[in-house]
Design brief:
five-stranded parallel sheet
Length: about 180
């Protein structure tokens, strides 16, 4: 059982963070040439779509946005489920030679990002891969870091960061939840 410990971001904070990230992405990449945003299922997808909309508003360019399912690339697949649910990966263009920005909601151990990079490399050979996350909560198990971070939120191992988005959950907010030990 989880109980909400604190709210990290409300809808305005999420909107401002994505606005800032959209500018950082275009600035670091010196524009939008050869840029592709790829959302990692589930919540990375609407975040990538929102970033693309903001970049279009600022730069006047429609960026390709892909959807990446990393289910079969996970190193903990057997721990998740005996019958994992696999969704479709949808990448609208060839990735070879492109600048790929992977987009996810929370960066934690780094294992999801490692799996996403493996999946991307199976689809082509991008010029470079960058990572944009809404929240970086620390506790890395792999040498992976985000290039673009909406908010740093150091957490304990007993806490989880829960991102709620309008597209998937009906509301925009980020909360820290504490795992209850049942000794109440």
């Amino acid at each position: 059982m989880h109980r909400i410990k604190a709210q990290l971001m409300d809808d305005d904070a999420i909107r401002r963070a994505l606005y800032r990230l959209s500018h950082e992405i275009t600035e670091k990449n010196k524009g939008v040439d050869d840029l592709v945003l790829i959302g990692i299922r589930t919540r990375g997808v609407p975040l990538a779509q929102r970033l693309a909309a903001l970049i279009k508003k600022n730069e006047g360019v429609d960026l390709p946005v892909g959807v990446l399912d990393i289910t079969f690339y996970r190193d903990d697949l057997s721990l998740i489920s005996q019958q994992p649910v696999v969704h479709k990966t949808e990448i609208p263009i060839r990735l070879t030679g492109k600048k790929v920005v992977l987009v996810d909601d929370v960066l934690f151990t780094g294992r999801t990002v490692r799996a996403a990079m493996d999946a991307v490399m199976d689809l082509g050979r991008p010029r470079l891969i960058q990572l944009a996350v809404l929240v970086d909560r620390g506790h890395r198990e792999l040498p992976i870091r985000a290039d673009f971070i909406g908010k740093n939120a150091p957490t304990s191992q007993r806490e989880t960061v829960s991102v709620k988005l309008k597209e998937t959950d009906g509301e925009d907010r980020v909360v820290i939840e504490e795992v209850a030990d049942g000794k109440d």
